[in-house]
Amino acid sequence: MIKPTSKSELKRECLYLCNLDVAKAEKMYDFLIRDMEGIPDVEPAAKPFIQNFGEQASGVLGWFRDNQDMLGQGVDLIKGLINRKGASATSPLPPINE
Fold this sequence. Notes:
- By secondary structure, this protein is mainly alpha-helical.
- Helices cover about 65% and strands about 0% of the residues.
- It has helices at about 5-15, 20-35, 50-65, 70-90.
- Helix 1 (about 5-15) packs across helix 2 (about 20-35).
- The radius of gyration is 31 Å and the shape is elongated.
């Protein structure tokens, strides 16, 4: 399966698929590149780890800010369930009349 991200990557894939036969690889490359006008010449630069981590963290924090009311309601619901369950468990059972 060919998933080129640049022209250089496509050339490399064509060479591998044609068992390093340059003539066949050139024909395959010309056939494939004909319809790919917007493909870059070289691989796009990868983001540094810190920059990528910062973008992910700000996205998560933004989601928490946007959904703060929903999260608060969920916490209140869980607290209410715990308090209700704890209250019924601590109350003594009524005596049994014989």
